[in-house]
Amino acid sequence: MTVATEMKRREFLKAGAALGGGLLISLYVPGLARATSTAADSAAKPIALNAFVRIAPDESVTVISNHSEMGQGIYTSLPMLINEELEADWAKVHVEASPVEAVYNHTAFGIMMTGGSTTTASEYDRFRKMGAMARIMLITAAAQSWSVDPQSCHAEKGYVIHAPSGRRASYGSLAEAASRIEPPKDIPLKDPKDFTLIGKPTRRLDTRSKTNGSAQFGLDVYIPGMLTAVVQRAPFFGGKVVSFDATKTKAVPGVVNVVQVPSGVAVVAKGFWPAKLGREKLEIRWDEGPGAGISTVEMREQFAAMSHTPGNVARKVGDPAAALGSAAKTITAEYEVPYLAHAMMEPLNTVVDLHEDHAEVWSGTQFQTGDRAAAAQVAGLKPEQVTLHTTLLGGGFGRRANPSCDFVTEATQVAKAAKAPVKVVWTREDDIRGGWYRPMWYDHFAAGLDANGNPVAWTHTIVGQSIMTGTMFESFGVKNGIDAASVEGAADILYGIPNLQVDLHSPKNQVPVQWWRSVGHSHTGFSVEAFLDEVAHAGGKDPYELRRALLANQPRMLAVLDLAAQKANWGSPYPAGHARGIATHFSFDSYVAQVAEVSVDSDGTVHVHRIVAAVDCGRVVNPDTVKAQIEGGIVFGLTAALKTEITLEKGRVQQRNFHDYPMVRMFESPEIEVHIVPSSEKPTGVGEPGVPPVAPAVANAIFAATGKRVRRLPIKPEDLRSA
Amino acid sequence: MISFTVNGKPVSVEDPPSTPLLWVIRDSLQLTGTKYGCGMALCGACTVHIDGEAVRSCVAPVFRAQGKKVTTIEGISPNDTHPLQQAWIEIDVPQCGYCQSGQIMSAAVLLAENPAPTDKDIDEAMSGNICRCGTYPRIRRAIHRAAEIQAQRGAK
User: Which of A45, A163, A445, A662 has the fewest CB atoms within 10 Å, measured from its CB?
Assistant: First the structure.
């Protein structure tokens, strides 16, 4: 997100200092390194060489991950960064989630958080340095014991070797002594040409556990005495409990307790099933609140009207009004996208165990610093009295980094009210109807073309709720009334159009909104790239050639555009009824282009046969992970393009489960090809950048196939029916 | 009391007979590899086998298992040696991994019944399983690969 970029820029100097020289040592070699290396228990215990690396006498190497694994492969990429320098035996490396400590803060955000496709960018230098630091300490320990010059020793696959004498000592045998070595002040890193792991396709460390049932997600946490709770939340956003009758609920076998919390009424039971059955019997009177009347149909009319009025100016270049006035041809169009739920496969859940002077929380969260503080506040404890265990996440997509810490706060409230260790589980219906959606957006465009069909003016008015206003992220992300996340991908387009203006309206309503995989780009990718396709056709240009011309000063984007077009055989004949569409999008500092090949049945059914993607995300750590993330982003974006919308009528969400909030399935999943542009630039995002170009590539292909312009998502077959 | 076997071990449970098998497996037996995703047999994350047949355990009352053999992801092979597990590891299918137990359990029935599935067979057998991370292209490749592994083993 631009949020991330923005935060990164603001925080970079501050955090950057921590990555250099002496400060680093005191930060990363904590007292705990010494504490765990007392001789008595050294036989079995792993020894911390710094905050990120532990080595045990049995040679196992534990990499401590300060970022959450939600599918993006970071539990493999971070160990790769460490081990590139550590030179341990890769087969002995495994990962553990870090506790919540300042030392584990994101290098740019200054808090513990996984999001904005920033993990690799945050940790690329630090993790390599941590690996190198540990290696130097191991070598020094060995050299001291052999009374040789450390410079005459080297490290290889978990051993320190003194080649002149042929002596070898394993990391496991050296760890204890190494932990007592003064950490080096100067930590040189490898020349990238010497990398043996970074840049090589590497099997994920977590795959085996994800094929035999042993991988532990939040929902899989069971602690002694734990009860399970489901919460009946208000049927309207902002609604409150007036009163409730739990008589019938308490009669359900297995129901232990029914407690009121600010968000609703929690049924606490011995297991999920009795809790859910009990919830069905609750009788609650609600104070409906102002959210009870809202409807997305009315909201759309309001947004559409606003899109015709000037908003806050997010960016202005040249004199767009004059250029539009004098253009040889002008076109206008309106684009719209709906609210969307994240619908991670693992519904939200959190386990909370409260004690008088401490608490433990288990959650698959992307936002450890915030969630721990929130749990502490509810529990009446200090944050450091709360131990937050980060489990694996069964998908995140932003939902598990909630700016108001909603699911952890609520779970703690339930545990406190129930006076018992509790796992709060959201049902799928709770998830789909629970808000915190990708905002609904309405975009109005105008473009002016010169006599040669080239765009000389471009205006874009965006209407949609601000994600960051009113949250703890407001000061980072909102400036002069512009939420950076609302205009990202629109105000910063790479196309060279001489007169350009992007305006923003940020209407408010009761629907809670949140970042959703690719955030603002999830709508600007579609609207900007589809409207540009309209501009190309209006000017009589090939959509690929027009993009090439407008990207003349953007060599990295031009290269991915050319690569995608070339791999997709842009311009070559295709089977009867098929057609191609193309789109590019710059997001999370990465460059992506995609070509979609589609066909449309006479009943309007869209078949997406193939997507060819090219990506430049700077230096690649694990190429197979980059491919997997782009593949996954494409399928995720395709679901938004073809399938899903959240609508409200009289304040009620109209969808509830996968039958009316349907996902792309195997039979609809296209063939996907991902091509990576080799790069030695600094690493940038891959978790999100695959998403934005899919919808416009498909929509543009549909236009090429049918002559029908898609300006609204999800794409509806009834709009595409041929007579 | 309802009695059946899970992964070869006899179990008896006291849950009410209408309790979905999923919650008996998870909450009572604490075998957590079988996942909850929708509760309406729409996503396939809860897929287990009852007497070799793929069943969405989130809507199957536990009494359906009475006297039968239930297999969960934990029991599909000793030491992760099922051809599907091998292929999943080889191709690095999972991302978040949450749906993958169900994917493998559905694919296992496909492979048992059809040792050389076509893409169309895979579409038909696997379209009841949702993967929000979008690993479908890799699941498809891995099923073809598992069919090869299975054939090679059979040939030995």
Answer: A163
